[in-house]
Amino acid sequence: MALFKPKYITFDCYGTLINFDMAGAAKATFADRVSEEGMPAFVRDFAAYRLDEVLGAWKPYDQVVSNALRRTCNKWQVEYSPRDGDAIYTACATWGPHLDVPAGLAKVAEAFPLVLLTNSMNDLITHHVPRLGAPIHMTITAEEVGAYKPQMKGFEYMLDKLGCGPDEILHVSSSLRYDLMTAHDLGITHKVFVSRGHEPSTPYYGYTEIRDIGGLPAVVGL
């Protein structure tokens, strides 16, 4: 069976490539209000509310963060201040790639154009792309699309902009819920799940699983 050679390798950015440490930022911000024992559940709720916030009409990502944080604090009966949301959103710009990313990404960039489809703002992503260590052919943000993943609109927009069918790309993500389930529903045949521990593997969705981006070159025969 011939090895699949995609026209483009497309990526989720935050979590997959950038170590998007929302959990760490929340722990640091709320260490004085949430117990050490309760913090893992508090952080999980914050993540769940962020997912819920992106399922509706598009709004700036700082509002996604602040709304999710406010709702989490309401559930936990913890005092919330707008300064908390501001602190976490400001921290986003400081985060860099996972250690495995630059070398693995640079290797596949020698043979394939790389595309980011990211739940980011146009100004926020400019902090992260230069840190990836490889040339990025195209970056598409949720702000440009007017919708966040896991909504289908971003994937449809990307395929239209690239002039590709869903069977001509390889999509790479560490999240099933934000990326790979939607990609599956849209008929994106070729997918890679980077098992960074965010979510359990669910082979039903038809992907190749790798531990980190260092394993990606082998997927495409490099």
UniProtKB/TrEMBL annotation:
GO molecular function: hydrolase activity, acting on acid halide bonds, in C-halide compounds; metal ion binding
InterPro entries linked: 2-HAD (IPR006328), HAD-like_sf (IPR036412), HAD-SF_hydro_IA (IPR006439), HAD_sf (IPR023214), S-2-haloacid_dehalogenase (IPR051540)
Keywords: Hydrolase, Metal-binding
Name of protein: Haloacid dehalogenase type II
